[in-house]
Amino acid sequence: DVKVTQSSRYLVKRTGEKVFLECVQDMDHENMFWYRQDPGLGLRLIYFSYDVKMKEKGDIPEGYSVSREKKERFSLILESASTNQTSMYLCASRGGLAGGDYEQYFGPGTRLTVT
Amino acid sequence: QKEVEQNSGPLSVPEGAIASLNCTYSDRGSQSFFWYRQYSGKSPELIMSIYSNGDKEDGRFTAQLNKASQYVSLLIRDSQPSDSATYLCAVSPRRGGADGLTFGKGTHLIIQP
After folding, report:
1. Per residue in B31-90, pLDDT tens?
2. Which residues of chain B does A109 touch, with a Cβ-Cβ cutoff of 8 Å?
3. From CA A86, how far away is CA B14, in angstroms rounded?
4. Which of A15, A18, A88, B66 has its CA at a distance of 20 to 30 angstroms from the CA of residue A74?
5. Does B51 touch chain A (CB under 8 A)?
6. Chain B residues with beta carbon closer than 8 angstroms to that of A97
7. A9 close to A91: Cβ distance less than 8 angstroms
8. What radius of gyration, in Å, describes the C-alpha atoms of chain A?
9. Cβ of A108 and B44 within 8 Å?
């Protein structure tokens, strides 16, 4: 079974704090993703990575950065948290084109509240 | 702008009946199609994937794809109260690869005992 884990299920931070959300997958997947999910807006892609040290902006990258130093680990960074970043954050991983594993699996999510 | 459209519901179905969920997508070049189930407060769980036109069955679930009509559906047979959840349709331009999925906003399904 694919397993994607996230460092925290719930997190409360103050405005202006630097926030790190960690994600680890154990399926040797090349591709990893960060989404946020908000009521009425659905799931939106923030950033993704197709290889170690490689990253690409998704649809809503403003206010976020990412880091991928190891294949299994993908971190989302909020440089200076703001209240409009209060959301459910979902990490996902997916196999590569040659791997035959085309499906994307999600971690349990981190519900972040910024006060 | 790639879009995936779903009726938000709620869709109410009696226990034991067939639940039919529908999805349309705008990108004609899409190659991969997925259905996720999401319980309140939980993350999406993959239940079906489909890549070719036609039907794909897995237990009580059947996914149907019609690329010419840009239409994907999910049928749930013998619906159970535990099937009550939000169902998300997702689309990708390729099989596998680095492309993030484009999600619909989901259909809220209620199975009435």
Report:
1. 999 999 999 999 999 999 999 999 999 999 999 999 999 999 999 999 999 999 999 999
2. 42-43
3. 36
4. A15
5. yes
6. 94-97
7. no
8. 13
9. no
